[in-house]
Design brief:
With about 500 residues, the protein is mainly beta. It is built from four helices and 35 strands. It is globular and about 55 Å long. The chain starts with a helix and ends with a strand.
């Protein structure tokens, strides 16, 4: 079906130093013993001017030149009210720039209608994933509630701040100033464009947007202009943060966290029904009406790895699979409150196989994992390795290390910073002129809880257990981000 906003909706309903707010300082001081990880959701009150990071370990590898753009929530609390969920904080774009062996850090808030209104009121009033909001919210479109706080996509001299349920927000790659929401076509303004686009070899970009049991499938040209947007009906209305793709197919994983009622916050609309199992919808990129459905045992998920397709039609992809949605519903609330025990078991890395004869299976690696990523040079083709954060455990919900899992040997190459660190997602940076799958660096930030600062680390993808090749340290701590992109 040709996409239009109407057709889609018819189917369903100035730079300054960063400082902590007084509220967060008091809260952190009072709760430090009970929630040592509370710095991960600390409030940043203003934009962060560019400043050098200090090299505290090793030496930057020759050839590593570029910028790690990272997105994530940067402010959660205001005097007149706070968000109730980790996913609802104001988007803060970070830029770690590496040049000539040196690193700098800067950050700037996404200038959204949500942030402008709440800055004016000095209160959080906008509904979100886990935040109810109140009658002072001004909601005329999806982008009035858009926090622009989840992921990053490079777009020429801009980066797009991506969110779950609205438009990309273009920000200048040079100074991180906000340019405005991106409308890919006039009649598609404000339609959902999710946080995890997938890329073909030729630069074509695929993404989805959800609204109940309908999904818009975005296909963008390499220059980020719109190629097509089409509507696909889904077998059920499941919550979905990510999808994956092979060279020929889109792979849509429908967990049994399904739409049940309307209301706010957004997460309250869904019910966890494990008896339904998890289904996988495979869609032909060349003809979106051609689909296949596979059945799997129940699991929950936020993030999938890149998929690939073998000669006989078998599709494989990896997933950070969870047992339920306890963390999504309650754990992320506890993170922001900074007290209590965080419910839910850590996700584990698993490999899903969809066979041409309709059979499907999932093999659990037994390794705790989140944010699975692979070599970007192997998008859509067979790969051996998956990087992920590690060290998360029940009650202490944030990771402490980084690992690369070898699917052929079953071994995991792992480095752990220890309990006084919160590690964040690593991105793969291929070494110039090299083609081997592990001929790459992994670049990842962390929060050093002992020093109270943000750090940036570079690892050899082939030898993660050896520890960082080099580490830089900032003079401030930024809260934990979600996703990033390397721009060379």
């Amino acid at each position: 079906m040709h996409a239009s906003r109407r057709a889609f909706l018819t189917g369903a309903a100035a730079l300054s130093a960063a400082v902590l707010t007084p509220e967060s300082v008091r809260a952190r001081a009072a709760l430090q013993a009970a929630a040592d990880w509370s710095l991960a959701t600390v409030d940043i009150e203003g934009d962060l001017a560019p400043r050098p990071m200090r090299l505290v370990h090793g030496q930057a590898p020759a050839g590593l030149e570029g910028t790690l753009f990272r997105n994530g929530p940067g402010r959660f609390r205001r005097p007149g009210g706070s968000v109730s969920h980790w996913f609802d904080g104001d988007g803060l774009m970070r830029a770690f720039r590496v040049r000539d062996g040196r690193a700098t850090l800067e950050a700037r808030f996404a200038d959204t209608p949500k942030r402008r209104l709440e800055s004016e009121l000095e209160a959080v009033v906008t509904p979100g994933f886990g935040t109810v909001g109140d009658e002072r919210a001004r909601v005329g479109s999806n982008d009035d509630v858009n926090a622009a706080n989840t992921a990053v996509m490079a777009a020429g001299d801009a980066v797009w701040a991506l969110w779950e349920g609205g438009s990309p927000l273009a920000m200048d790659a040079g100074d991180l100033s906000t340019r405005g929401f991106v409308s890919l076509r006039d009649d598609l303004k404000g339609m959902p464009f999710q946080a995890h686009p997938r890329f073909d070899d030729d630069g074509t970009i695929w993404n989805i947007g959800l609204w109940g049991d309908r999904m818009v499938v975005w296909r963008l040209n390499p220059d980020r202009s719109l190629h097509t947007a089409e509507i696909v009906a889904l077998p059920r209305a499941s919550y979905m943060h990510d999808f994956t793709a092979t060279a020929r197919h889109l792979v849509i994983v429908l967990q049994p966290w399904v739409f049940e009622r309307r209301g706010m916050p957004y997460a309250a609309q869904f019910a966890w029904k494990p008896e339904l199992g998890t289904r996988v919808l495979v869609i032909d990129k060349a003809d979106l009406t051609r689909t296949r459905t596979f059945e799997l045992p129940t699991f929950s998920f936020f993030h999938l790895g890149d998929a690939w397709e073998e000669a006989d039609g078998t599709i494989r992809f990896d997933v950070a699979a969870g047992e339920d949605v306890a963390f999504a519903v309650e754990g992320a609330r506890v993170l922001v409150e900074g007290r209590g025990t965080v419910p839910g078991e850590p996700a584990r890395l698993a490999m899903v196989t969809l066979r041409a004869d309709g059979r499907a299976e999932m093999v659990d690696s037994g390794v705790d994992a989140e944010f699975p990523k692979g070599d970007p040079r192997r998008t859509g083709v067979r790969r051996r390795y998956t990087s992920h954060v590690a060290g998360e455990r029940r009650g202490r919900p944030l990771p402490t290390g980084l690992a690369v899992h070898d699917w052929e040997s079953g071994r995991s190459d792992r480095f752990d910073f220890g309990a006084r660190t919160v590690t964040e997602e690593a991105v793969w940076v291929p070494k110039p002129g090299r083609a081997g799958e592990t001929e790459a660096w992994l670049v990842a930030p962390s929060i050093n809880l002992g020093e109270g600062v943000t750090e940036l680390h570079v690892f050899e993808a082939a030898r993660v257990a050896d520890g960082p090749l080099c580490s830089w340290r900032a003079d401030v701590a930024l809260p934990a981000g979600f996703h990033g992109a390397w721009v060379g």
